[in-house]
Design brief:
By secondary structure, the chain is an alpha/beta fold. The chain has nine helices and ten strands. Strand 4, helix 5 and strand 5 form a beta-alpha-beta unit.
Length: 280
């Protein structure tokens, strides 16, 4: 089975390391170094071959590359890896003679770590383990950032919907208040006297005409006992309305004959009397 076919069968949780060097003995040494690990190792003799492998759809978490290679050098190769697969962690190997150039590349942010040749095996293993941890942390951070982005978008949509709902409800309330105000204005300006009272004879409402009829203020009459304000004939009429639920007849108030109409209104188990007095 070829390396390409093996790669496609690798599990998503397995860490793949691509080792790139034009010297086969270096690649063999790296493979031996990681024999006792769970890492999956793929080797390439040049940056071009490694890019071909990665472009085939193979995922690599770590790339370890030599600096001096024929054709594409290690820094240029890793810069291309950074451009195409920025999440891949990049490590470069080099002799001490190339240190200045490699450090410059590291300072540009293209390379995670520089390991000199010949390497210390324990140092190499620790560096790779740290690189794997860095990759995992970056992946988790990207996931958290994506979740945060989605939650922020949801919150923005919720706030937008809330703003729309508040605006709609506010418009409805304004409209309803205008209707209520208009209804109140109409009620207060009716040409007949209108009173509302409960079965205990407590007055609950009164319009302008009603307050004028008895010489009281609309606000001051609310909560008063109608028997202390109405003349006796009108109080008798109210008692008759309570007994019959609805009644219309003439009554005399202050020497003036008034057409009186009383109706019992029931809502939610509560009773109320609406009393209308009309005269020429």
């Amino acid at each position: 089975m070829s390396d390409y076919e093996e790669d496609r069968q690798a599990t998503n949780d397995q860490v793949t390391i691509i080792c790139v060097d034009d010297e086969q003995n270096v690649l063999n040494a790296l493979e031996r170094l990681f024999n006792d690990t769970d890492y999956r190792i793929f080797t390439a003799s040049s940056g071009e071959k490694a890019l071909e492998y990665m472009n085939s759809g193979a995922a690599a978490q770590i790339v370890i590359s030599d600096y001096r290679m024929p054709g594409m050098n290690g820094v240029d190769f890793l810069k291309e890896v950074c451009r195409l697969w920025p999440e891949t962690v990049r490590i470069i190997l080099s002799g001490y003679a190339d240190t200045a150039a490699v450090v410059a590349a590291i300072n540009e942010g293209q390379i995670y770590r520089f390991i000199p040749k010949p390497w210390d095996e324990e140092e190499m293993k620790i560096s790779v383990a740290n690189a794997v941890e860095k990759y995992i942390l970056q992946k988790e951070n990207r996931k958290l950032l994506e979740e945060l982005k989605q939650k922020n978008e949801q919150l923005e949509r919720a706030n937008s919907n809330l703003g729309r709902i508040v605006a709609e409800n506010t418009s409805k309330l304004i409209y309803q208040n205008r209707i209520l105000q208009s209804s109140h204005d109409i009620f207060m300006s009716l040409p007949a006297a209108v009173f509302g009272l409960n079965p205990s004879y407590e007055l609950t409402m009164c319009n302008h005409k009603g307050s004028q009829l008895f010489g009281v203020k609309e606000v001051g009459i609310k909560g008063k006992d109608s028997r202390n304000i109405f003349p006796e004939e009108l109080n008798i009429f109210v008692r008759e309305v309570l007994a019959k639920n609805e009644l219309t007849r003439a009554v005399t108030i202050n020497g003036v004959e008034v057409k009186a109409r009383g109706v019992i209104v029931e809502k939610g188990g509560d009773k109320a009397i609406t009393l209308l007095l009309d005269w020429e």
